[in-house]
Every structure is written in structure tokens, then in C-alpha cells.
Input
Amino acid sequence: MCNRGFIRTFATDKSITHLFLFKEFMINRELIRIKVVQLTYAYYQNGSKNIDSAEKELMFSLSKAYDLYIYMLALIVGITQEARRHLEVAQSRAQREGLEQPSQKFVYNRFALQLEKNRMLQDLVETQKKNWSDEPEFLKKIYTQITESQAYQDYMASSEDSYEADRELWRKLYRTLIENNEDLDALLEEQSIYWNDDKEIVDTFVVKTIKRFEEKNDSHQELLPEYNSEEDKEYARKLFRASIMHADEYQHFMSEASRNWDFSRLAYMDIVIMQIAIAEMMTFPSIPINVTINEYMEIAKLYSTPRSAGYINGMLDAIARHLINSGHLLKHIEEKH
Output
């Protein structure tokens, strides 16, 4: 098995969000690259070196990111149901004491009700067998935080009554109270060693899913599917296997292209990142070299030393040119200006 303790602490830089562009599917190439870097590094830290087990761990890790996406959408439903319980108590009290009935505006938020009856979400939550009703204390606490928030107060005081306003409330609540919530982070870490690593990535997809909901779609509004196609699953497997199975060859290319560098002085993460980048260059003809270099340079900014990104950028450019000139790589690379 891979070093799971490493995976738990690996993705800690809050600037990771800029790497991920919204697409019509949850697990994209950017996320796959991050996971391959994580799992390749972890592979070299364990003693068994079983590539089949490591590949299963990679695919499981990717699937857990999608599980979290569904779980976080379901949290909106869980909070709405918690609000409904509070409303019922408040209504009974008002009736007993002859008080004015409390507002039902939040409980009957159109977006939240649409999400609650979303068929795709219902099916996926049932498959996961995870339910926010199992976390009553957390739901009570976050519901209280919501009712005390400025976004909630403004919403309840506003005379605007529209689906768009209802949806915008939940976008604001998610951004302000769910994205950075220490109690939620602790709860997720207890449930899965992967989820704290994945949450910031998943948050971007949840917020953009909220924004793309349309009232006319009712319960048939589509959520993001897990993968765009089987091709992306195969991309993950091939990239991971190529990175490990051809590691000696790729490190030889590094040495040939940088004879003046002492590899013993490099951060080990730099070598792993470049090894995976070379694997992508060599294995996937349709991916432009400059795209590969830019993607792994950005990953280096997050996961290696402060100087690593610039070094990796220059090294990968030199390696790519060496591979093209030596006939190992049949691709084009833009000339430097």
C-alpha cells in the first residue's frame, strides 16, 4: 500500500485552486496530474513497490474526490433539512404562545429544494451510503453559523423573491461558511484520509455547479459526471505506469540534458515531477510539450522548493529539445524568444 500519511498532508497550499479550470466533468487532466504526482512520490516511499496496488490506490484516490463533490452538495440538503426541523419547532412554539409565525423563506429556498429532489444526487448519495443526518451536532452548529451570518440576514430582510436570489444565497454561504470551516475539515479528515487534500479542489466545482443550476431543469438538473470519458481513466493509468516503469530511462534523459547539474543536490520531489512530465511527453502524442511543461511547473510551485518551478521549467525545456534532436520524441516545441 502507498504511504497514506503522506497523502494526508501533501496538498496543503491554498493557492492550488488556480490550477483547476471548470469543465463539464469532475475529474480532469489537471486533477489527474496532481494525483499521479502524489501517488508516484508515495510509491517510492513504501517498501513493497507493488505497481498494481499503487495503481488501484491512484484510481481509488480519484474516485474519492468525486465522492467528496457529491457529499458537499448533499451538505446543502442536510442544512436545509436541519433548518426545516428548527422551523417546525419554532412554528409549534409560536402557535402555543400566540406569537407571529416565523419566516419560511430559508426553508423554502428554491435552489435548495431543487437540489434536495435532484435525482442524480439522490442516486449517488444512496450509492455512497453516507448521510449528513449522521452528523447532527455539526449540522446544528453550521446552521447556527448561517443564521448569524450577514448573507443570511440580508437575504431574510430582502423583499426580492426569485430563484436567482435563492441560488445566490447558497453560493455566498458556501464561499463564506463551508469553504474554510475548521470543524468541517476535521470531520472530513475523520471520514477519509483523502478528503482534506481534495476539498479545496472540490469546492471550486461545487460553487460552479451551484452557479450553473437552472430552475427550468427541476429535478433533472445534471451534476458533473465523474469522468469525461474512459479516455481520461486510461490517461491516469498510462501516465502513472509509464512514470514508474520507465523511470530509469527518464532519469537518464535528465542526466543527458543537464550534465552540469548534480542530481544528488536536487529535491527528490523535483526529480519525481520531471519524471512524470517526461512520461507525459513520451506517452501522449496529442498533448503539446508546452502544455506539459507549464502544468508541471505549476505543480512544482505548490509542492517543491521555492526555486523548483524555474529550474523545472528550464530543465524540461532542455530535456524536450534533447529528445527531439536525438529522435526520441516526435513533437514540436516552440522556439524561445
Summary: Confidence is low (pLDDT under 50) at residues 1-23. Residues 301 and 307 are 8 Å apart (CA to CA). DSSP finds 15 helices and no strands in the chain. The first helix runs from residue 4 to 10.
